[in-house]
From TrEMBL:
Keywords associated with the record: Leucine-rich repeat, Plant defense, Repeat
GO molecular function: ADP binding
Residue ranges occupied by any NB-ARC domain in the UniProt entry: 97-251
Protein name: NB-ARC domain-containing protein
Keyword Protease recorded: no
InterPro entries given in the database record: Apaf_helical (IPR042197), Leu-rich_rpt (IPR001611), Leu-rich_rpt_typical-subtyp (IPR003591), LRR_dom_sf (IPR032675), LRR_R13L4/SHOC2-like (IPR055414), NB-ARC (IPR002182), P-loop_NTPase (IPR027417), WH-like_DNA-bd_sf (IPR036388)
Superkingdom: Eukaryota
Biological process terms in GO annotation: defense response to bacterium; innate immune response-activating signaling pathway; plant-type hypersensitive response
Ranges where the Disease resistance protein winged helix domain occurs: 338-413
Domain (Disease resistance R13L4/SHOC-2-like LRR): residue spans on this chain: 524-634, 692-769
Length: 812
């Protein structure tokens, strides 16, 4: 009702007519009706004398857990994990270099992927047969330190359950029993995220170097927290399709079939739908058992693959993870079910949809964007979201962060959102029944060229829809009628030759995703969306100009014009976008300049100009962007200089000038960038000596000067960069010496001098960095490494030296 109220709350015209008054009368009637319903609920509550009763609640600690595991396993039935077992055994045997502390190795992966099974294989391996003790503890979602400790003590003693009631008694008993004893402990299925609790667990188990602990968890975050020094979590990958097919054969009685030759290719197709999860393959195997070939084919072609599992044992397993989420996280995750299976999800698009739909509320300490980023990290940690392979397969979108969802995770999201989601596929007999209560719509294979069908379809969707997504569809002109309360419109799966004029009636639109527009003109109707805060037109390579009317979008916070390769001019009206926080102009390769009005964007935090190959200069007004944190000028080939005003960007944290091949010098004001943390000058071939003011960048952590061929020396002030961790000088083949002040860089961890063919010695001050510094070299000029090694041995400087041999450009 609130959305509908906002949609109809446009400024009244001076001339009131019945058409203007009618919506207000209807709204008043609806509000009156709702008040009556609320009053009736209150009266029923009082008349029936309802009270809050806790007597029926059962302590969660007392509930039996049907997922509880044991150490028992029938190895002959386990398929596809031999290599993983050997890897884990190797890590356990080599990881403990510290003679005083335990080894904790976590196994991390998606629910149903086989973490517990792998732990069982390791637990029962002959490598541990001579151990004094082997202990298996199922931890579960109810994390209880005392229960874990008592369980270990009970198994070591071989007696009934122990009930020591204080941590002091438990810790002392564990020390008495396990100190100097070779012991393997498996802690299966840890969900606890609290740092203090996990630290206390490790402290309780820290009874000597002979103790090895194997942990299984779905959360990468928990895995990282549980790791001991020198150990990395073991990330368990999905099985390949052949292994899934072997599991299906094993569980379906395949070998006893008389039609194996005909059934095998069908079964292999089904195996590919398991997503690499052995639990899914096992469930499908049981399902296929006893079915004839026609049933197998029907299963292979069934629409079930596009819909949530209803009876699978995998979905409840994943739903346990979902149930641990906070309400806001649940909303954000469930919304991901609006995308089709296998869809590649743009991170920025997703975050701003969450915000527009009210799923994320900013707090006093964090903005909505920061909270959304945190949610993304949590979903990644639980494997609910995964990085898409698309990022490496299609270089054009390398700068974007793209996610995908495992099929079974998608099933979970879709099962949760299904009652609020209208799903329509024009190529299938999808139900077109109107659902008034639905808030979201997903349309596939939709085509508005059929006028009558398009008009009919637009009346079927609920008037209160808040988000619509189109996939593999075509939209032309003004045929389709959009709901007035719409807040999110995703046209990324559309071929659009003419922008829908009917969108002008959608006054509440906040997010518009319409990449790859085929219009030659920027759609003027977009500028009518006064509440629009996110606009993505990336890849619209036929648009040559941005109209001045874009300045009307006063609420706009994020503008993506990346890969709009024909855009030549940005209008001065850009300066009217006072709320703009991010501008992405990546690969606008015909753009030659930016307007002076750019300096009016006081809230701008990110300016991405990567691969603007014709951009020759930046406006002096750039220095007025006091909130700018990221400036990307990668591959701006024609950029010759930077404005002196650059030094006024007091909040700038990341500056990428890599491959600015005509850049000759940095302004002296550069030293005023007090908050700069990352500076990339890779392949700046013509860059002259760095300014002395560089030493004022006291927060700098990474300085990359790879292939800066003209640089012969570094300023002595370099030693003032107290927070510098990485210094990359690879390929600086005219660099003859390094400043003595380098030894003052107490936090320096990596120094790359590969290809510095004229560098004959290192400063003696580097001996101050013994034990911390890793020096890397990858070219091998004559006698170069011999001289360096002699120097290193003489001064005992290095902790690590990597000298992988490659040839320099001249072949030496």
């Amino acid at each position: 009702m609130l959305d509908e109220f906002k949609a109809n709350s446009e400024p009244a015209s001076r001339k009131l007519d019945c058409f203007a008054i009618a919506p207000k009368i209807a709204m008043a009637y609806k509000m009156k009706k709702m008040r009556g319903q609320l009053r009736k609920i209150k009266e029923d509550h009082e008349s029936f004398k309802f009270t809050h009763d806790n007597s029926g609640l059962i302590d969660v600690h007392q509930l039996p857990d049907p997922r509880e595991t044991t150490s028992n396993v029938i190895e002959s039935l386990i398929i596809g994990r031999d290599k993983d077992r050997m890897n884990v055994l190797s890590l356990l045997s080599t990881s403990n270099n510290n003679k005083e502390h335990i080894t904790v190795l976590p196994i991390c992966g998606l629910g149903g992927i086989g973490k517990s099974t792998l732990a069982q294989l390791v637990f029962n391996d002959t490598q541990f047969k001579d151990y004094n003790h082997r202990v298996w503890v199922y931890v579960s979602q109810v994390f209880d330190l005392k229960k874990i400790g008592n369980s270990i003590i009970s198994q070591v003693l071989g007696k009934g359950s122990q009930n020591l009631d204080t941590r002091e008694l438990i810790d002392q008993r564990l020390k008495d029993l396990l100190q100097d004893k070779k012991t393997l402990i498996v802690l299966d299925d840890i969900w606890e995220t609290d740092n203090f609790q996990l630290d206390q667990l490790k402290l309780m188990l820290n009874v000597g170097s002979k103790l090895k602990v194997l942990v299984t968890t779905r959360s990468k975050d928990i895995a990282r927290k549980m790791c001991t020094v020198g150990v990395q979590p073991y990330l368990l990958d999905p099985l390949d399709n052949d292994m899934c097919w072997r599991i299906i054969k094993q569980n379906s009685g395949f070998e006893s079939r008389v039609d194996k030759g005909q059934a095998e290719p069908v079964g292999q197709i089904i195996a590919r739908k398991c997503g690499g999860l052995p639990l899914a393959a096992q469930a499908l195997g049981f399902l296929l058992s006893g079915m004839d070939l026609s049933d197998w084919k029907a299963m292979c072609n069934n629409d079930i693959w596009d819909e949530p599992f209803s009876d699978s044992t995998v979905l409840p397993s994943l739903k346990l993870t979902y149930n641990t989420l906070t309400p806001y996280l649940r909303l954000c995750f469930a919304y991901c079910g609006i995308f089709p299976k296998g869809h590649n999800i743009n991170k920025d698009d997703l975050i701003h949809q969450w915000i527009a739909l009210g799923f994320i509320e900013p707090s006093n300490n964090f903005s909505a964007i920061q909270l959304a980023e945190k949610y993304i990290r949590q979903f990644m940690g639980m494997s609910f979201l995964q990085h898409s392979k698309l990022r490496t397969e299609l270089p054009k979108i390398i700068p974007k962060t793209i996610f995908t969802m495992h099929d079974l995770v998608h099933d979970l999201a879709r099962s949760i959102i299904t009652e609020e989601l209208v799903v329509f596929d024009a190529k299938r007999a999808s139900s077109t029944r109107r659902k008034e209560y639905c808030c979201y719509a997903s349309l596939t294979n939709y085509n508005t060229t059929d006028y009558n069908k398009a008009r009919k379809m637009s009346t079927i969707f609920p008037s209160k829809l808040r988000a619509m997504h189109f996939f593999n569809s075509e939209i032309h002109g003004g045929v389709f009628s959009f709901p007035k309360c719409l807040r999110v419109l995703d046209l990324s799966g559309c071929s659009i030759t003419e922008f829908p004029s009917a969108l002008g009636q959608v006054k509440q639109l906040e997010v518009l995703i319409a990449p790859n527009l085929e219009d030659r003109q920027f759609p003027e109707s977009i500028t009518q969306f006064s509440k629009l805060h996110y606009l993505n037109l990336s890849g619209s390579d036929k648009i040559s100009a941005i109209p001045s009317s874009i300045g009307k979008l006063e609420s706009l916070a994020y503008l993506d014009l990346s890969y709009c390769t024909s855009v030549e001019v940005i209008p001065e009206a850009f300066g009217s976008l006072k709320n703009l926080q991010t501008i992405d102009l990546t690969w606008c390769e015909k753009l030659e300049s930016l307007p002076e009005s750019l300096g009016s964007l006081k809230n701008l935090q990110t300016l991405d100009l990567a691969r603007c190959k014709k951009l020759e200069s930046l406006p002096e007004s750039l220095g007025s962007l006091k909130n700018l944190r990221t400036l990307n000028l990668l591959y701006c080939w024609q950029l010759k200089s930077l404005p002196e005003s650059l030094g006024r960007l007091e909040n700038l944290q990341t500056l990428d000038l890599s491959e600015c091949m005509k850049l000759v010098c940095l302004p002296e004001s550069f030293g005023s960038l007090k908050n700069l943390q990352t500076l990339d000058l890779t392949w700046c071939w013509k860059l002259k000596p760095l300014p002395k003011s560089l030493g004022s960048l006291t927060n700098l952590r990474s300085l990359d000067l790879t292939h800066c061929w003209v640089i012969e020396s570094l300023p002595e002030t370099l030693g003032s960069l107290k927070n510098l961790q990485t210094l990359n000088l690879r390929g600086c083949n005219k660099l003859e010496y390094l400043p003595e002040s380098l030894g003052s860089l107490k936090n320096l961890q990596t120094l790359d001098i590969g290809g510095c063919s004229k560098l004959e010695y290192l400063p003696e001050s580097l001996e101050n960095l013994v034990g911390n510094l890793k020096i890397i070299g990858s070219w091998k000029p004559k006698n170069h490494w011999k001289r360096l090694r002699l120097w290193m041995r003489e001064h005992q400087v290095l902790a690590t030296v990597s000298t992988t041999t490659h040839q320099s450009p001249d072949g030496t």
